[in-house]
Amino acid sequence: MAGGPVEIRQLVTFQKVATLLSFTRAAEELSYAQSSVTTQIRALETSLEVELFDRLGGRIRLTPAGERLLQYAEQILELAETARADLAGGDGPAGNLVIGTMESITSYRMPPLLEFVHHRYPKVQLSLRPSLCAETCHALRQGTFDIGFLIEEHTRHQGLETVVLAEEPLVVVAAPDHPLAGQESVSIDDLRKTSILATEAGCAYRSLFEEELQGAETTSCLEFGTIEAIKRGVVSGLGVSLLPRVTVASELDKGELAALAWPVPFTVYTQLAWRSGKRLSRELKLFIDQTVRLMQEEQPLSKSG
After folding, report:
1. What is the arithmetic mean of pLDDT over 3-29?
2. Pick from 94, 102, 147: which is nearest to 291 by CA?
């Protein structure tokens, strides 16, 4: 190559710019000066004798050569990371996995998995990132998350591979003394006339619930930041809420909440997703296998690609 050998750090910088499509954001995430990022990319283009990016005013996009290089760069960097982890960790898995997740998964599904990984593989560090499904899918495609949890309908996402871990039962809950709690049957019209306590916008099962409630001008929706806050609001009589049953199982058993007799007309699933074509490291394979195993102890699994 006319400009000299390609350096690993140049490939790291190139991959970051290519996934974010921003020199400024890449510099921030890599803790570089923007001029350093620009210099590295120009040096890489000189070495390879190709243009990797089209500069369009304030925006950039990959050239065809840049798109091909990105595939090679990801393979090279993943192989380099595997070698580093193998050498640094001896016989055991080591390294960091960045995981997109959500409160209902982190608090109610993941503790057995976190405990298992912590005790069995202490050199594997799990970095949990709170994220809604759409945000998780975007971060997986960009390479900022290694893997992510989704709770939504069984949906194929372009550029991602998924495994369905389990159906996630949903239930509408209310305070035990709420007027709807004593009814043998609750209709969607009944729900349209009461206050709804909802998770933040972008939650998949909230969106499905809102579709069912459409056409109700009188429906009052109070948005809460966390499931725990929603449960406290429901207990205090502020309204009713649709939540994964696993998040309210304890309160239902204790009689602190009541499940309304409204059959949820849609089904969502807890799923695990990662970028298509991604070379799975030993640590990532381990995480996927153990997640599937622990979920399978609760419910049968089905898979999709």
Report:
1. 88
2. 147
pLDDT at 303: 39
Asked if the structure places residue 292 within a domain, the reply is yes
Structure tokens, 168: 């996630």
Name which of 46-55, 116-125, 223-232 the model is least confident about.
116-125
Strands 95-101 and 147-152: parallel
Residue 160 in any domain: the answer is yes
Averaged pLDDT for residues 248-275: 95
pTM: 0.69
Which of 177, 176, 180 is CA-nearest to residue 196? 180
SS3 call for 37: helix
How long is the chain?
305
Show the domain range for 25: 8-85
Using 50, 70 and 90 to split pLDDT, how confident is the model at 144? confident
Cβ(21)–Cβ(144) below 8 Å: no
Extract long-range pairs of 86-95: CB within 8 Å, 24+ residues apart.
86/282, 89/123, 92/121, 92/123, 93/121, 93/123, 93/124, 93/282, 93/283, 93/286, 94/121, 94/123, 94/124, 94/283, 95/123, 95/124, 95/125, 95/281, 95/283
**Looking at the 3D structure of the chain, how many domains does it have?**
3
pLDDT, residue 86, reads 65
Q: For the chain, where are the E strands, in sequence order?
A: 53-56, 59-62, 95-101, 124-130, 147-152, 160-167, 170-174, 195-198, 220-223, 241-244, 258-259, 269-275, 302-303
Last residue of a domain, one of 61, 85, 109: 85
User: Is 253 in the same domain as 208?
Assistant: yes
The whole-angstrom separation of Cα 55 and Cα 58 is 7
Q: For the chain, what is the mean pLDDT?
A: 87
